[in-house]
């Protein structure tokens, strides 16, 4: 994690302070702010650094197999269970279990996780003997769990368990002065990764990067740097090529157009086109998932698209399916 802004340094100091407190941590921050990096920062600054760090995307956990995925199973638990299989909690023994997108867990999965967090006790599927986990749990969400709880989409008692310590990752637009440092760092990394020549930004290019609001945060900046490096043969990357690489995107729900949403007429043609398409796609997907009550297979049938393609679109727009399952 790189940065020298006041907001960044305060956040990093908080991460290192929490590394010495061996309890659950909840990390909240917009998409692309580096929540997994923050969780790793806590893990590797703690006494657990020599034990495993196990990241889990909660949105990818099958609802009907949640206990099997987390707790594992014993031999004979299922027809095809010819041998015992450890779960994610076993893999994280003595280390850290990182639950990313924890707000996407279904109501059933939330109950399962809550029971485990209450006393760190679990039982593999098909097992008779309870076990005690020594893993530390760090959870993350790109939304706000308070909002989810108020809407009845997330259990308040589970929020209390996860939120023993809380970290908010500042968006890149609030990290004054960090964009030029990160842009230069990513440019060096790209050159090393691709085995290509070292390139530099012009002062004008860095100024353009520094004034962009970066709704996709550090991840968006990293992608723009990669495209800029590949898009020029020159040793210097000028501002002239950035207008086509930096396109306006719909702000996250967490930012809610703080300074007002741009009028399409004020945008460059390509930016306006992208903004309109993005807005249409997201609105259509939200409406579709409401109709299908969060069932991706049903939504694919309703929209006449392939399930895999629909899943990619939902991931692109950061739309979780779990909240729609609670709606009637």
UniProtKB/TrEMBL annotation:
Identification of the protein by name: Sigma-54-dependent Fis family transcriptional regulator
Domain (Sigma-54 factor interaction) ranges: 1-230
Domain of life: Bacteria
Lineage of source species: Bacteria, Pseudomonadati, Pseudomonadota, Gammaproteobacteria, Lysobacterales
Pfam families: AAA_lid_14, HTH_8, Sigma54_activat
Protein keywords: ATP-binding, DNA-binding, Nucleotide-binding, Transcription, Transcription regulation
Organism in which the protein naturally occurs: Dyella koreensis
